[in-house]
Write a structure and sequence with these properties.
The protein has 391 residues and is an alpha+beta fold. It is built from nine helices and 20 strands. The chain is 25% helix and 27% strand. The structure holds flavin-adenine dinucleotide (FAD).
Length: 391
């Protein structure tokens, strides 16, 4: 006799990973899929918020990320096709730094190992082709041709709509308070009642330690601020002329994206904010002094910009010490956890969402074993302090 009962999978959090997992899970006809999000549909509190995210294939983190990023690139294109929306502007990504800068060397090694489409720009070429960047004589650049800018809010809205169209049930303004695994299934207690599930995907980002105290030693909440600057000639900073970028000048790291709104472009560098254990108490805006400093720095690095950031916002993200994510399934195979995207994980959220969906469906995808919780906790003993940065 065939058992026709569908497996019920609950996804906690409809942010970057949760939305992508819901989209993938909803494609599997033998699953009943439920998403639970503490805020509304596509909100401003998640680590994904803030108009754009840098996408790079020539990653500074080294080659082990490249297959995951290439799979994500395919999935970003699939999401665009299925939703009919533009999500990924492949305008390229410039990494600018003095010749020999360590992150640049890793990016170049990754390019060589994976034969990634790219261009090396000498100081002269950089000045000629991208006069928007005011560079010093030591600076060179690597142009990652498959890099660019992602539209995070549009991506999440699209994935959630597609999941719903495929039959997933989404509950907003509902907080998951507790998850209890029993031999018969998982009990998910929320502010709006209790849900019984066969499997649960925890994709709760910066809030993960609240549901999984075992992550408390591993995850730290780091603050990341965003600022937008007003150029006198916006056309120079339009996506057609101005790629996404990472810039290292001494110990100052800038990252940003072209103007998507038509009047300002994103250029951000982060003050030295403390590291937090919980989102409670994390700053929600820059101070006046911080904005003045960022503006002054920007004027030195970008041509024709006003020193006053015209928009700003402050966000947070859950970090592991070496910035590798956690992707794991509990011993009873009922609870799947994906978290710790460490300030650079939006670009590969579709691949992580796909892993989560495969694990929830009982499959065993080929995942980097360093992402397991046991390996992450073990690494705690050998790793140095938490690194900031990202993108
Ligand atoms: C300012 C900033 C800039 C960044 N820039 C880049 C970049 O350029 N490129 C890049 O690749 N990455 C970048 N990142 C990193 C990337 O955006 C994040 O790593 C990614 O969004 C994290 O995804 P997530 O799904 O883990 O968390 P989120 O996207 O925050 O999603 C978690 C969701 O879970 C919900 N939730 C939490 N707890 C509960 C609960 N108990 N019940 C119900 N719902 C719950 C939250 O409300 C949220 O919606 C940046 C991050 C920040 C903050």
């Amino acid at each position: 006799m065939t058992d026709t009962k569908k497996t019920n999978v609950v996804v906690v959090g409809a942010g970057a990973v949760g939305a992508m997992a819901l989209w993938q899970l909803s494609k599997q006809p033998d699953l009943e899929v439920v998403g639970i999000e503490q805020y509304g549909r596509v909100h401003s509190h998640g680590s994904y918020a803030g108009e754009s995210r840098v996408f790079r294939t020539a990653v500074h983190e080294g080659g082990s990320y490249v297959p995951m990023i290439q799979r994500s690139r395919e999935l970003w294109r699939t999401l665009e096709k299925e939703s009919g929306r533009e999500i990924y502007r492949e305008v390229g990504c410039l990494s600018i730094a003095p010749e020999g800068f360590p992150d640049l060397l890793v990016a170049m090694r990754t390019i060589e190992d994976f034969e990634l489409p790219h261009r090396m720009l000498s100081n002269e070429e950089l000045r000629k082709e991208y006069p928007q960047h005011l560079v010093s004589d030591e600076d060179i650049a690597v142009f990652d041709e498959q890099g660019g800018g992602l539209r995070p809010e549009v991506a999440i809205m699209s994935a959630l709509e597609l999941a719903e169209a495929n039959g997933a049930k989404l509950h907003f303004n509902t907080t998951v308070l507790e998850i209890e695994s029993r031999s018969s299934g998982v009990i998910v207690r929320t502010t709006q009642g209790t849900v019984h599930a066969d499997r649960v995907v925890i994709a709760s980002g910066s809030w993960s330690t609240r549901l999984m105290p075992e992550l408390q030693d591993l995850l730290r909440i780091q603050v990341i601020g965003l600022t937008w600057l007003l150029p006198r000639n916006p056309a120079l900073y339009a996506p057609e002329r101005f790629p996404a970028f990472l810039r290292d000048v001494g110990d100052v790291h800038f990252f940003g994206a072209p103007s998507f709104d038509g009047y300002a472009f994103k250029a951000c560098t982060n003050p030295k904010w403390p590291v937090y254990r919980d989102v409670e108490g994390v700053p929600t805006s820059h101070s006046r002094e911080e904005l003045i400093r960022i503006g002054q720095r920007a004027v030195e690095l970008f041509d024709g910009v006003s020193p006053e950031p015209v928009r700003e916002s402050v966000h947070h993200c859950a970090y592991t010490p070496d910035r590798l994510p956690v992707v794991d399934r509990s011993a009873d195979e009922r609870i799947i956890t994906v978290t710790g995207l460490s300030g650079h994980g939006f670009k590969f959220a579709p691949a992580l969402g796909e892993y989560a969906a495969q694990l929830a469906a009982g499959l065993t995808p080929d995942i980097d074993e360093r992402f397991s919780l046991a390996s992450r906790l073990q690494a705690l003993n050998t790793l140095g302090p938490y690194q900031g940065g990202g993108h």
